[in-house]
Amino acid sequence: MASAESVISELAEYFEGLPLWGHELVQANVIPPATIPSIMGYLYSTLFNPNLIWDEYSYRVSEAEVELCAICAQLIGYDPKKSTGITTWGGTGTNFYGIRLGIEKALPEAFAQGVRQEVKLFCSSASHYSKLNALGWMGVGTNNLVNIPTDEDNSIRIDLLENKLRQTLDVGERIACILPTLGTTDSFGLDHLERIYHLREKLVREYDLKYVPHIHADAVIGWAWAVFNDYDFSENPMNFPRRTLRSLRDVWIIIQNLHLADSIGIDFHKTGYAPYLSSLFMVKNKDDFKLIARTPDAMPYLFQFGNYRPGIYTMESSRGSGAALSALANLKFFGKQGYRALLGYIVTIAESLRLRLEQSPYGVVVNDYNHGPVTLFRVYPDTSIMPNGRPAKLETVEGTEEDAIQRVTPTQLWYNESHSKDYAEMLVRHNAFNRRVFDIMHNTMANGGCLALSLTENYRYSVGGTPILALKSFVMTPFVSEDAMTQLMHCLEKARKQAMAELSSISS
Ligand SMILES: *Cc1c(COP(=O)(O)O)cnc(C)c1O
């Protein structure tokens, strides 16, 4: 046994070394610092321990979940009277729900009889891996995933999606779900939901389908941009800088169509600034939940009365209320205006990094067409060995008299690597170089210097099919300033120089 006091202070020690997500030099991933009201949402829920399985065990706290869904419906353009939602265990859980509803539409009675036929899930190769959890855990099988390549802007290739959907329908297989991603995890790529929606409508008519393939929008990152749905981009009343305004508008153009999806995943613990876990699954038509509901006689100890009984159709039995309370807290705390200011600000800072990289002699932004708070980039050594075996130097590197050596810009190197099979070897070498630059910065960070960035081993494939590695800065904290980006560039150049020195000591 131990005293409460000693246990409490011992617990605190487990937080030693944890990055502070609110610190401006922490740009690791889509992990926000949580607001005080949202932390209180979680604290209240633990202090009083309501259970959102039904209103008998949660009383007015149920209302928080209902209110949350109504607000989010309005935000994304669903009819609050026809739609509904539930909080659940993470963005992964939202994908489980979306895919599960789709399966039941494609294979009615699957809930009772099991999945005994081929059903396919369609999403882009840049979509989140949680689709694999869903397929595996739900017995569909991960082999039934149809991965569609992406365009330069990291959005799903609609022409290829159409081909694959047709092939599936032609052989009499069914479509479990089409799962566009609005805000991919690495690059903030946005699938063109409107075009996917019209494609689905066209195929339903053409093939005279007896079911409507479900579209679930994985918008766990991008949903927050819906706060711009009624922002006046031409008047720009919040005076966003020009570059920021363009960036916000480019995202909004796609996000404004979220309501076309049959269901949507929303993570408040990502771009909503709430603690883990705070996810919301929304359905456009609340009757969809009937497809996966159990009958009350299976649960004789519950649901004999009351008005709000989500436990009849949720995956969970007991349900904590922290997600609902903390998400609702932030919606009330920020309102649309607050979220606009937050998103506008983090995008402004991310844009400033992009500008610095563009102006640097050695860096390239590789998710150029994606206008969120995440910047994927690569850096290049002063000298690269070209496919013909000859060295080429960056334009800005000083030469010697006999130096009639070829000159390249980082953008040229990047373009060639990603677009030409001849450059595959160079791509791999530069992957290793960037990996080394990252490791140097990461070690410095662990020893208290530099800043916390992250790395993606494969943000997309080159035309030749080689994974492209990239360094990643994800700006989430509102406490970030331009100075952080000055420091980032400084650390980056130091690490690049060290990596080059190591290379030359190996070759000499
Ligand atoms: C983070 C993420 C998920 C998974 O959400 P969790 O909350 O981590 O379970 C799903 N899809 C996308 C696009 C994501 O970025």
UniProtKB/TrEMBL annotation:
Top-level division of the source organism's lineage: Bacteria
Keyword Cell membrane among UniProt keywords: no
One example GO MF annotation: transaminase activity
Alphabetical keyword list: Aminotransferase, Decarboxylase, Lyase, Pyridoxal phosphate, Transferase
Record SUPFAM superfamilies: PLP-dependent transferases
InterPro entries registered for this protein in UniProt: PyrdxlP-dep_de-COase (IPR002129), PyrdxlP-dep_Trfase (IPR015424), PyrdxlP-dep_Trfase_major (IPR015421)
The protein's required cofactors: pyridoxal 5'-phosphate
Family note: Belongs to the group II decarboxylase family.
Name this protein carries in UniProt: Aspartate aminotransferase family protein
Species this protein is from: Halodesulfovibrio aestuarii
